[in-house]
């Protein structure tokens, strides 16, 4: 879960920092990158609310146990949805992309989102009180497989690859937790829209890189 959250944070940071400096020639690609981040986060939270949290409550017999997490989702949903709708309008040509507008819309939800992403980890760690009866590792993998499997391999999933630092904590984490040959294939699929992923904080080799569009 922390690895997913790290990817989301890196992706949103890369958007926030670069948006004011994107030139019109790159607007189309940048909007697609932003929408990939939006859709990835939306899919992650849908997966939690529709599968992960209900499974935890069912196994523990504690209905409402995860309500605090759902409430935190709701705290940033309005601003997050407004940002996503604006991006959709920019992609369709209903409105023009503006970097400062993008940042202003993000300002409406990044604070409560950051609180949620930080709080959720200790909330999950506290579930250790239920011992072996609650196999969080298996549940988390099942939710991750469901979410990742539902994302477009060329238009959405690569947002996680270009924002997961393979060198993090000495490179001990494999993310997504899939066999290397499958990961290699997915990375190749991501190159299909290479112009979108140049805004990522990590290259397809898994190594962090300087953001290309930071201005002077």
Automatic annotation (TrEMBL):
Superkingdom of the organism of origin: Eukaryota
InterPro entries registered for this protein in UniProt: Dimeric_xanthone_biosynth (IPR053206), Hemerythrin-like (IPR012312)
Residue ranges constituting the Hemerythrin-like domain according to the UniProt record: 5-120
PANTHER family: EXPRESSED PROTEIN (PTHR38048), HEMERYTHRIN-LIKE DOMAIN-CONTAINING PROTEIN (PTHR38048:SF2)
Full protein name: Hemerythrin-like domain-containing protein
Source organism of this protein record: Lojkania enalia
